[in-house]
């Protein structure tokens, strides 16, 4: 899969020629037997459901999805029985054309878009749909100025898809970093932990880190740390027989009395009472 930067570099070095832009209804229940798709093409699913099968890979159709084809893709499709599928579709040719130092380079597009073949989920579907609509409307007008605007609108469409890829990849990277800090908290529950320290580990601002942490876990970072510490304290109170001062240190509280207050605040009982209750036959 191309990342956003690689796609931008490829598109920057490419020249495009739109051969068709349309808005089509695929009727409910319709099946298209496999055939070889011979040209670059890009579809936007406006509404409806069904399946595209591209080189044996099945993709579910849903509103807001973008489907990308490259030449020599074996393609078949099936539309659900309940409703039609509406699509925007653009067919195009492309050629690599760019300047390398002092020399111009001209070469076939090759398989530059092949890693994108298949389904892209649009993060901002309204923006992507607007770009498809603009290309479609401009392509129907054959004067040179409109055609030039159509070429620019097609470039804007690809720019929108680059932004979508970047958002998806950044979100994925952010989720991975937040999950890393969750594991770090579990492994260092006895240590002093601050939200600022955890955010710094991810390279995110404290506020943004806190919002993403809550989105993924359902808890603010401080509450998440407290819950883990008190759950660990419960285990130790039930099983270890350690002194309260030792348990408080093992779960990250140097002050035994502060630990006791936190424990009672969140469980409704003191640590000593909890230990007695858990050890009753």
TrEMBL record:
SMART domains: HTH_ARAC (SM00342). It comes from the Bacteria. InterPro entries: AraC-bd, Homeodomain-like_sf, HTH-like, HTH_AraC, RmlC-like_jellyroll, Tscrpt_reg_AraC-type_HTH. Pfam families: AraC_binding (PF02311), HTH_18 (PF12833). Residues 179-277 form the HTH araC/xylS-type domain. The keyword Phosphoprotein does not apply. Keywords: DNA-binding, Transcription, Transcription regulation. One of its GO terms (molecular function) is sequence-specific DNA binding. SUPFAM superfamilies: Homeodomain-like, Regulatory protein AraC. PANTHER family: ARAC-FAMILY TRANSCRIPTIONAL REGULATOR, HTH-TYPE TRANSCRIPTIONAL ACTIVATOR RHAS. This is AraC family transcriptional regulator. It comes from Paenibacillus thalictri.
């Amino acid at each position: 899969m191309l990342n956003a930067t690689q796609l931008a570099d490829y598109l920057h070095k490419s020249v495009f020629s739109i051969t068709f832009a349309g808005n089509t209804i695929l009727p409910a229940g319709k099946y298209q037997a496999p055939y070889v798709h011979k040209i670059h093409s890009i579809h936007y699913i406006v509404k409806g459901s069904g399946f595209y099968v591209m080189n044996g890979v099945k993709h579910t159709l849903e509103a807001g999805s973008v489907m990308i084809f490259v030449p020599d893709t074996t393609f078949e499709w099936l539309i659900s029985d309940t409703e039609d599928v509406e699509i925007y579709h653009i067919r195009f040719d492309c050629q690599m054309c760019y300047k390398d130092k002092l020399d111009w380079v001209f070469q076939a597009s090759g398989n530059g878009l092949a890693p994108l073949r298949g389904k892209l989920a649009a993060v901002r579907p309204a923006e992507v749909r607007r770009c498809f609509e603009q290309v479609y409307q401009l392509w129907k007008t054959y004067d040179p100025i409109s055609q030039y605007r159509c070429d620019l609108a097609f470039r804007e469409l690809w720019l929108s898809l680059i932004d979508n890829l970047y958002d998806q990849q950044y979100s994925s990277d952010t989720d991975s970093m937040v999950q890393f800090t969750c594991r770090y908290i579990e492994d260092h529950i006895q240590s002093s932990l601050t939200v600022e320290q955890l955010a710094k580990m991810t390279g995110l601002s404290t506020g943004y880190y806190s919002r993403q942490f809550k989105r993924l876990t359902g808890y603010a970072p401080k509450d998440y740390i407290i819950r883990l510490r008190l759950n660990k304290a419960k285990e130790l109170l039930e099983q270890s027989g350690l002194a309260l001062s030792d348990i408080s240190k093992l779960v990250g509280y140097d002050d035994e009395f502060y630990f006791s207050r936190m424990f009672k605040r969140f469980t409704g009982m003191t640590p000593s009472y909890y230990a007695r209750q858990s050890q009753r036959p």
